[in-house]
Amino acid sequence: MKRLVILSGAGMSAESGIRTFRDMNGLWEEYDVMEVASIEAWNKNPELLIRFYNDRRKQMIESKPNNGHLLLAELEKSFDVQIITQNVDDLHERAGSTNVLHLHGELTKARSSIDPTLIYTLADPEMKMGDKCGKGSQLRPHIVWFGEEVPAMADAVPIVESSDYLCVIGTSLNVYPAAGLINYAPFSTPLFLIDPNPPASLPRRVQVISKGAGEGVAELIKRLETFQK
Ligand code: APR
Fold this sequence. Notes:
This protein is an alpha/beta fold. Helices cover 30% and strands 19% of the residues.
């Protein structure tokens, strides 16, 4: 089967009711990103970050996968679909996608604040100060904050380099290194981008589908069919 690589961002989950970051009414309009999503903020005020991610985890639990997530899961019948997402929600997995790589962490998990290899799936969606890891340190959200490395890039780059088709869905391509992944696609790989307000700076050869994720993935499927004939 041909390998279809999806690079998804917050716009993928917008139609599920999860706020994006940089759109109108985006999360970073309400919060100062460096106060709630940076390693400095965690060191300064861990309670605030625990509350911030508890709220986002609650919203995720109350949301459900949208048509775009469901169509991508369905596509596994015809392609080797590999999803690389900047999103920390579990909507791709809940839609049925089986190959999902989270570049920026996962809301469903917590990790030790002294040993990053100690990662736990949260039984209780409400994290609290005083929740400890096996080595006795405070548990933190398993999220990649600004100022931290993105270890999953080591796995993401070879996946993009081996893509037969690649589609970017719902990301403003503002945040590196994730935004640079598109440049690792082989020159022979057809590139698509689904976004109602596509980012201005795109490689010339990208086929833009200026629609939301739900309708956009349906359009992508039609365009992929022309390659399959
Ligand atoms: N369908 C598809 N795309 C959409 C939709 C939709 N229904 N609604 C909005 N979008 C697009 C917007 O036009 C925008 O280009 O989704 C993109 C969202 O961009 P951002 O809010 O910047 O989100 P993202 O690119 O995922 O942010 C990257 O920044 O704060 C960090 O770690 C955080 O992973 C996040 C990273």
